[in-house]
Amino acid sequence: MFRKSMLASCLALSCLLAVPAMTFAFNPSSNLPVNVDDKGIALRGYDPISYFSGKPAQGDSDYKFSYEGGTYYFVSKANLEKFKSNPAQYAPRFGGFCAQAVAKEKKVDSDPLSYKIVDGYLFLTAKSAYKDWTVNVDGYVKQAYVRWPDIKNVPPKGL
User: Fold this and answer.
1) Number of folded domains in the chain?
2) Using CA atoms, how far apart are residues 67 and 89, in angstroms rounded to an integer?
3) Is-contact 103 136, C-beta < 8 A?
4) What would the DSSP string read from start to end of 87-133?
5) Any idea what DSSP says for residue 1?
6) Is residue 4 a part of any domain in this protein?
7) Within a domain: residue 80?
8) For 107-120, how does the pLDDT look when each residue is reduced to its tens digit (9 = 90+)?
9) Distance of alpha carbon 55 from alpha carbon 157, whole angstroms
């Protein structure tokens, strides 16, 4: 009994000690136009080119490129070069923030697996917003394009 209690206590303590070392997926204080974590990584490390094949994949830090203040990772040199040739085409719209939230003048963290390619561009949403967003994609996208210039460089916590 004592052994199980001690093991549980050690496990709980190790989890608490690990928290400061964790990378947060979203930086609410950042005034960048790109949704980055506390280390400046965009798309939680997913390769933006991979979305266009329908299979989002984690990139590799050996292949990286900074665009609009966020660092993007890629699965290969070929994907990196493709992105560099036209980053405005391949980077997620609205900096990778939830497109539905941007339509409502907010900057909310997105889920890298809640996405849709619309007119050749990558749009992300929060997981909880995806179903509602897909009911009116065109309306939300149109409204987000109107609101984005006003909030682009405002920290999420300031909205």
Assistant:
1) 1
2) 12
3) no
4) HHHHSPGGGGS-HHHHHTT-----EEEEEEEETTEEEEE-GGGHHHH
5) -
6) no
7) yes
8) 999 999 999 999 99
9) 32
Give the DSSP letter of residue 69: T
Residues in the chain: 159
Tens digits of residue pLDDT in 59-73: 999 999 999 999 999
Is the separation of the CB atoms in 147 and 102 below 8 Å? yes
* Residue 125 and residue 135 in contact, taking contact as beta carbons nearer than 8 Å: no
Q: Is residue 133 part of a domain?
A: yes
Residue range(s) defining the domain that contains residue 57: 24-152
Residue in the structure block whose two tokens are 């923030």 = 97
Q: What is the pTM of this model?
A: 0.83
In a domain? residue 110: yes
Burial letters for 36-45: b for 16+ Cβ neighbours within 10 Å, e otherwise?
bbeeebbbbb
Query: Cα dist. 14→74, 76, 115 in Å?
Result: 32, 35, 35
Rounded Cα distance, 81 and 31, in Å: 27
